[in-house]
Design goal:
CATH superfamily: Metallo-dependent phosphatases
Largest sheet: 5 strands, mixed
Shape: globular
Distance between the termini: 17 Å
CATH topology: Purple Acid Phosphatase, chain A, domain 2
Number of helices: 7
CATH class: Alpha Beta
Number of domains: 1
Length: 251
Amino acid sequence: MARFLFFSDLHLSDGTAIDNFGLKKKILFSNFVNAVKKSNIDRIFVVGDIYELWQGIGDKKERLERAKKTYPEIASFLQNNCVELIGNHDQARKKLDKIASNKLIEADGIKIWLEHGDRFDRYYKKWPWLCEAAVKVFAILEHLFGKKSQNIISRWVKERLPKTTPASSRYSGNLSEYEKGAKELLVQKDCDIVVLGHTHKLYQKEWEDLKGKKRVYLNCGAWVDEHSDYIIVDTVRQNYRNNLYHNQEAL
C-alpha cells in the first residue's frame, strides 16, 4: 500500500519584492508540513520550480543559498523528507546539488511518471533559444541594477505575457499542450498516471486506453500567490484527489 503526496512550484526566493512565495506563506506551509507529518503519507515528491533561480542578485549558486537561508525550515523539510525534482526556474540544481529532472515510481501495480512539464509549454517548444536568451538578459540587468530593476522587469513581463504563460490568471489557452504531452508520456513510459507542475493550475484529466484501462494526468498547481495546492494518490484504493490546502486542514 502506498499513499503519495505531490506538490510543486514554490519558487522560494530571498524574501524581497521579487519573491512570489512570500514570507506570509511560511506559516501556512508550516501548518501544511505538520499536517503531512500527522498523516499516513508514505512518500512526498516536489515536482520542480522549488527555488526561484531566474531572479535575484548574484549567480545561481548564491541565489539558491540565499533562498535556503530565507526559508531554512522549509529547505530542511524538503531536503530531509521529500524527493525533489527540478523545473525550468531551478534547472541549475541539476549541477549544483545533483537533483534529477524526472522520476518513475511504482506501488501496487500502479506506475506514476513525474516531471515538471515545462518542455510541453508551446513557447518553450517553439522558441527555446529565445526564452533562454531572455532569461539571461534579465538576470544580467537584475545583477547590474539591483532590486529596482527586478521589480521593473517583473512588471514588464507580467504586463506583456499574461495571455501566454499558463501561470497567469489571464492565460488564454486551454492547457491542451500539457494534455497532449501527458498522453505521450503515458504511452512512452507505459505508466498509469503522469504528474506535472509548471502551469500553476490544479488539473486532472482521465482517459481510457484501447484496452479500457484508465490513464490519468494530474497537475500539482503551485504554492505562489493565492495557491497552496497539493495532490494525494492512493495506489491501493486507486484514487486521487487534488486540493487547495487551508489552515489547520488534515490531509
